[in-house]
Amino acid sequence: MDMSQRTLALLKPDAVQRGLVGEILARYEAKGLAIVAMELRTIDAAQADAHYHEHVERDFYPPLRDFVTSGPLVSLVLEGDQAIEVVRGINGATDGRKAAPGTIRGDLSLSNRENLVHGSDSAESAEREIALWFPHL
Ligand code: IDP
Ligand code: MG
Fold this sequence. Notes:
Layout: E1 4-11, H1 13-17, H2 21-31, E2 34-41, H3 45-51, H4 61-68, E3 73-81, H5 83-91, H6 104-108, E4 117-119, H7 123-133
Antiparallel strand pairs: 1-3, 1-4, 2-3
Bound molecules: inosine-5'-diphosphate and magnesium ion.
Inosine-5'-diphosphate (IDP) binds next to loops.
């Protein structure tokens, strides 16, 4: 059985603005994940709403939308054995203040919102998000 899996990752606008794109990509690459697609773009509110459709009614969503549309971000598809869970592990817990040292958020973020990265949380999310961000794949 082929265990290779694809997941959608975002290096959010704080990662680009802080100059951490290389540092973060290096961690994914060093782990052995392959970059299948990658793009730098500034998204509009409609793309933010589509990506975060499960969160659009939450109290934290309006400032999250402002943040993710505030400047360029990097979207990418990563591939490897159990890539969905592996990327979530490398990213760390949502709140950068509580994320474990050794993770991207634990080492580099002090914020619950500006936490540098996104990773799909399930096979269903990965399929939906890859189709949303990279419809040609
Ligand atoms: P995840 O990115 O670890 O999967 P989610 O719960 O799916 O976390 O939330 C999506 C994004 O919304 C987070 O990465 C973070 O940027 C933001 N967020 C989540 N919870 C809060 C909060 O309580 N306050 C502010 N922003 C939040
Ligand atoms: Mg999530």
